[in-house]
Design brief:
CATH class of the domain at 1-20 and 227-366: Mainly Alpha
Largest sheet: none
Distance between the termini: 14 Å
CATH superfamily of the domain at 1-20 and 227-366: Tetratricopeptide repeat domain
Length: 366
C-alpha cells in the first residue's frame, strides 16, 4: 500500500474514534475556586508530544479530557476533607504549570489510607495523570484500580482504553467485556452502548469486520433508543469507516452523511471536521477530485478554527495526494511541506516518515 493511501486510512481511523469518556465525565461535579478547564488544557498541551501515533494521539486527547477533569476536580474536593493529605494547594498550583508529580503523590497517600472505593478512585486519578509521562505507571495504576474495586465500570473502561492504545488488543477486549457485563448486570443501557462500541473498534482493528459491524449496530440501536445524538454520530462514523474499508462506497457515504448531520445539529465542529475529511477520502477513492477537494478544504477550515494541528496536518497531506494525482506537483509539494511541519510539531513519528517518503517520491516516475 502506498504512503498516499495510508493518509486516507489514518484520517478515517482518526475520525471514527469512539468518545470513550463521555459517560464517565458526565458523573463529575464542579470544583469550586479551581479553573479546571485551564489546568486540563495546560496538562494536555504540555504533554501532547508524548503520544506517538497520529490516530492514537487524537483518540487520547479526547479521552484525557474526562479523566483529567475528574482528577483535578477530585483533588480540589479532597482539599476540603478533614483528613485531607498535606500539599494539595501546592499540587494544584503545580498542575496549573503542567507538573503532575505532587498531585500523584497526594492521590498515592489517599489510596494508601482510604477504603477500597476511594482508594480505587485515587488509583484511577494516578493513572490519568501518569499517562501523560509514564504509560507503564498508568497501566499499573489502572490494574490496581480494578483490583481494588472490580465492580467499577469506569476502571475497566479506562484500563481497556489504555490497553487498546498500547496495542494489547486481547487484554483490552477482556476489559471491555467486563464493562459490558457490568452494564448488563445493572441494566445500564448507556454502559452497554459504550462497551459494544469499544468492542467494535477492537474487532475492526483485527480485521473482523462482520463482528465489528454487529457491535456498531448494537451500539447504534441503543443510542437511538436513548436519544443520544453524540453516540449515534460516532456509530454512524464508525460504520462509514467500515463500509469504506469494504469498498461499499455508497453505504459509507450514507453513514458519513448521517454522522455529519448529527454533528451539525450538536454544533460539534470537531465531529463535522472529521466527517468532511472522511467524505473527502471517499470522493477521492471514487475519483471525484473536485468534490474531494471541497470536503478537505471544509475540514481544514474547521480544524484551523479549532487549532487542531493533527487534523490540519492530515488535511494538508490528503490535499497533497489530490494535487499529485492531478499532476500539480508544485502545489502538492507545498502542501506536503505544511503537513510535515505540523506533524513534526506534534511529534507524530509514523506520519512524519510517510510525508517524508511522499516528498521524496513526488517527482519520481510512478
Amino acid at each position: 500500500m502506498s504512503a498516499e493511501a495510508i493518509f486516507g486510512i489514518v484520517a478515517t481511523l482518526v475520525a471514527g474514534v469512539w468518545v470513550l469518556y463521555r459517560y464517565f465525565s458526565e458523573k463529575t461535579g464542579e470544583a469550586a475556586e479551581v479553573d479546571v478547564n485551564a489546568i486540563v488544557a495546560t496538562l494536555q498541551e504540555g504533554h501532547r508530544n508524548q503520544l506517538h501515533d497520529a490516530a492514537q494521539r487524537e483518540e487520547t486527547l479526547r479521552d484525557q479530557v474526562g479523566q483529567l477533569t475528574e482528577a483535578v476536580q477530585a483533588l480540589s474536593i479532597e482539599r476540603d476533607k478533614p483528613d485531607a493529605p498535606a500539599g494539595i494547594d501546592e499540587a494544584l498550583a503545580l498542575l496549573s504549570k503542567g507538573e503532575t508529580g505532587a498531585a500523584e503523590a497526594v492521590f498515592q497517600e489517599v489510596k494508601e489510607h482510604r477504603k477500597a472505593e476511594e482508594a480505587a478512585a485515587a488509583a484511577r486519578h494516578i493513572g490519568a495523570l501518569a499517562f501523560l509521562h509514564d504509560t507503564e505507571k498508568a497501566l499499573a495504576a489502572y490494574h490496581e484500580a480494578v483490583d481494588l474495586d472490580s465492580d467499577n465500570a469506569d476502571g475497566w473502561n479506562r484500563l481497556g482504553h489504555l490497553l487498546y492504545r498500547t496495542g494489547d488488543i486481547d487484554d483490552a477486549e477482556q476489559a471491555f467485556m467486563r464493562v459490558l457485563a457490568l452494564g448488563n448486570r445493572v441494566e445500564n443501557q448507556e454502559l452497554i452502548a459504550i462497551a459494544t462500541g469499544n468492542l467494535g473498534l477492537l474487532y475492526s482493528t483485527r480485521g473482523d469486520l462482520d463482528r465489528a459491524e454487529e457491535m456498531y449496530k448494537k451500539s447504534l440501536a441503543i443510542e437511538e433508543a436513548l436519544g443520544r445524538k453524540e453516540g449515534m454520530a460516532s456509530d454512524y462514523g464508525n460504520l462509514g469507516n467500515l463500509y469504506l474499508t469494504r469498498g461499499d462506497l455508497d453505504r459509507a457515504e450514507e453513514m458519513y452523511g448521517k454522522s455529519l448531520a448529527l454533528n451539525e445539529a450538536l454544533g460539534s465542529k470537531e465531529g463535522m471536521a472529521n466527517q468532511y475529511g472522511n467524505l473527502g477520502n471517499l470522493y477521492s477513492t471514487r475519483g471525484e477530485l473536485d468534490r474531494a477537494e471541497e470536503m478537505y478544504k471544509q475540514s481544514l477550515t474547521l480544524n484551523e478554527a479549532l487549532r487542531r494541528k493533527e487534523g490540519m496536518a492530515l488535511n494538508y497531506s490528503n490535499l497533497g495526494v489530490l494535487y499529485k494525482t492531478r499532476g500539480d506537483l508544485d502545489h502538492a509539494e507545498e502542501l506536503y511541506e505544511k503537513s510535515l511541519a505540523l506533524f513534526r510539531e506534534v511529534g507524530a513519528a509514523p506520519m512524519i516518515e510517510q510525508v517524508e517518503e511522499s516528498l521524496a517520491n513526488l517527482r519520481r516516475p510512478d
